[in-house]
Amino acid sequence: xxxxxxxxxxxxxxxxxxxxxxxxxxxxxxxxxxxxxxxxxxxxxxxxxxxxxxxxxxxxxxxxxxxxxxxxxxxxxxxxxxxxxxxxxxxxxxxxxxxxxxxxxxxxxxxxxxxxxxxxxxxxxxxxxxxxxxxxxxxxxxxxxxxxxxxxxxxxxxxxxxxxxxxxxxxxxxxxxxxxxxxxxxxxxxxxxxxxxxxxxxxxxxxxxx
Length: 210
Ligand SMILES: Nc1ncnc2c1ncn2[C@@H]1O[C@H](COP(=O)(O)OP(=O)(O)OP(=O)(O)O)[C@@H](O)[C@H]1O
Ligand SMILES: Cc1cn([C@H]2C[C@H](O)[C@@H](COP(=O)(O)O)O2)c(=O)[nH]c1=O
Known about the structure:
Order of helices and strands: EHEHHEHHEHHEH
Number of domains: 1
Radius of gyration: 16 Å
InterPro entries: P-loop_NTPase, Thymidylate_kin-like_dom, Thymidylate_kin_CS, Thymidylate_kinase
Mean pLDDT: 96
Catalytic activity: dTMP + ATP = dTDP + ADP
Bound molecules: adenosine-5'-triphosphate, ligand LXEULUCI
CATH topology: Rossmann fold
CATH architecture: 3-Layer(aba) Sandwich
Organism: Secundilactobacillus silagei JCM 19001
Family: Belongs to the thymidylate kinase family.
Number of strands: 5
Number of helices: 8
Keywords: ATP-binding, Kinase, Nucleotide biosynthesis, Nucleotide-binding, Transferase
């Protein structure tokens, strides 16, 4: 498949959304029409509806496997409706979260098994794998403190225990070790301008190499 598929991963509050919006703005200023920015869960009408269902703090009854399946369903719709067509049109797709999130949050955080969650997602993705993943790393305590300090609405996942968030981060660190050719870590305890600059360098280098 043509195009370039770049994903952004990290624990809650690492700063992915902040970094990705700054980068999208820079590409917009440069009048780049070949860049598509999207997010998971969400990015289209159906996937945003699934997002609302998953993240609604009222849905305390949601079974952990139901949650994993809903993330995969949202992903499938985004791939078919948005990601694959954009890659086929030779675009650079910048996606806030992808399968690594499910492996970290559902596999490790919810403890339903990292490999089981990865395998289940293969059905949804038919093997679609990012060319590059920027892993924005932050200790769980720091990420959660950022969310508490700045965010008005804490969603169902943000509200999980510290030990849940620590399992998520540990899984991300394992994934980064397991896939060193795909996953590049950026230290998000640095000032936000530095995180943006380092991430932009990774993206532009990947764009030059394609
Ligand atoms: N490097 C940084 N240093 C200090 N604060 C930061 C940094 N990056 C982001 N923040 C702040 O932390 C908060 C969370 O950032 P952001 O929403 O971008 O995180 P996120 O990774 O997208 O989180 P989530 O996955 O939970 O949506 C925001 O208020 C943002 O301004
Ligand atoms: C894709 C995906 C996401 N999650 C979690 C991670 C976050 O807590 C929320 C998404 O919210 P964000 O503020 O847009 O990052 O959902 C998950 O548990 N599993 C996934 O596959």
